[in-house]
Amino acid sequence: MNAAPQQDQASRAYAEFVKGVWRENPVFVQVLGMCPSLAVTNSAINALAMGVATTAVLACSSLLISLLGRFVPSQVRISTYVIVIATFVTVVDFTLQALAPGVHKELGAFLALIVVNCLILGRQEAFASKNPAGLAVLDALGMGLGFTLALSCLGAGRELLGNGSLFGLSLFGPHYEPWVVMVLPPGGFLMLGVLLLGFAWFKERRAK
Amino acid sequence: MSDLLWIFVGALVVNNFTLSYFLGLCPFFGVSGQLKTAFRLGLATTFVMLITAIATWALNTFVLERFPYLRLLAFIVVIASAVQFVEMAIKKLSPALFAALGIFLPLITTNCAILGLALFQTSRGYGLAEGVVFALGGGGGLTLALALMASLREDAKLSSVPQLVRGTAFSLLLAGILSMAFMGFAGLLSA
């Protein structure tokens, strides 16, 4: 008797998790949170660290906001979200400083700038505040995973072309002439532009 | 004096907030459809940056010495109040401008260029005068980038772009080329 609703619930949870990875990917489809995705993706390791830090903040904030949801008056909800997010960013900032000082230094101000990542605020407003805690965390983890994957794609592509290496390991040997522009700021815009083009092309082909 | 000048030039073109630090990209792609609106938004953002720079200096000097872990919270609250204040002031002083800016005014709060400004000002240890100059340069640079992008996109409307490329991908490629052009200013600072 109970099997059907339970299955429904499981498949709903699965759908909420998976949508962030591909169908509603925050970077490639929704084009949210672009500032960090371009600024720190000049190497794969930085991109990965940024993705993980953002996912941690997103999951913690979603959990708390979804539990608080009912008690926050709607007039002050945005300020509440921002203060909750800022608190978790401070926690992640200090944690990373203690665990991986090198990466923390590389990310610099952009770690603190997770506060104004519109992806996080967007998920609180659109999902976490209206859904039960379990689903909110799953949604946050899915979105975070999608964000991390997209950032790693960008970072790996830029490091590979601009430096001839991946995660610091040289791949192409000493005769490779690096495209320095790819690790400089213009490379970020160009790489994301080309990836979006690829995405659009892929979608169009599938639609036919 | 020349230090201040270099901070201004550095923030204006060499390390342009939008094109080399990737700060404030949301309005850069969202509001850059029309030159007039883009320019006005740039000015409003610059004004908020100016207030933020002064507030940041005050916070850093008088409060955050003792409570460093409150830094982010304090900045974000100050920025949100500054935007609210600017919104009320514009509404009172010039209802026409208020109507033209619409939703983009409150959205300045989540513009990362402003929090970025406060954080950079802190990490570089700028005082009051340096902070104000940095805010003016950064805001000017942001306005410049917005206006350039808007002009490019207004022009691009008249050219025939393949259907597939239209939209965000096209804007990103434009921004990439614009950013490459700005890389040319890098020589100014090392000279």
In short:
Chain A has 208 residues and is mostly helical. Chain A has helices at residues 3-19, 34-39, 44-68, 77-99, 101-107, 109-112, 118-126, 133-163, 185-207; strands at residues 165-166, 169-170.
Q: Give the topology string of chain B: H per helix, E per strand.
A: HHHHHHHHHH
Global shape of chain B: globular
Write down the overall mean pLDDT of chain B: 85
Principal-axes shape call of chain A: globular
Strand arrangement in the largest pleated sheet of chain A: 1-2
Number of strands of chain A: 2
Which stretches of chain A are poorly predicted, pLDDT < 50 over at least 5 residues?
none
Largest sheet entry of chain A: 2 strands, antiparallel
Structure keywords:
heterodimer, A: 208 residues, mainly alpha, two-stranded antiparallel ribbon, 9 helices, 2 strands, 70% helix, globular, B: 191 residues, 10 helices, 75% helix
Provide a descriptive summary of the structure in words.
With 208 residues, chain A is mostly helical. Chain A has one domain. Chain A contains nine helices and two strands. Chain A has helices at 3-19, 34-39, 44-68, 77-99, 101-107, 109-112, 118-126, 133-163, 185-207, and strands at 165-166, 169-170. In chain A, strand 1 (165-166) and strand 2 form a beta hairpin. In chain A, helix 4 crosses helix 5 (101-107). The N and C termini of chain A lie far apart (42 Å). With 191 residues, chain B is mostly helical. Chain B has one domain (2-190). Chain B has ten helices and no strands. The longest helix of chain B has 29 residues, at 128-156. The mean pLDDT of chain B is 85. Classes of the chains: A mainly alpha (208), B mainly alpha (191). The A-B interface holds A 31, 34-36, 38-39, 79, 82-83, 86-87, 89-90, 93-94, 108-109, 112-113, 115-118, 121, 181, 184-190, 192-194, 196-197, 200-201, 204 and B 19-26, 29, 69, 71-73, 76-77, 80, 110-112, 115-116, 119-120, 123, 164-165, 167-170, 172-173, 175-177, 179-180, 183.
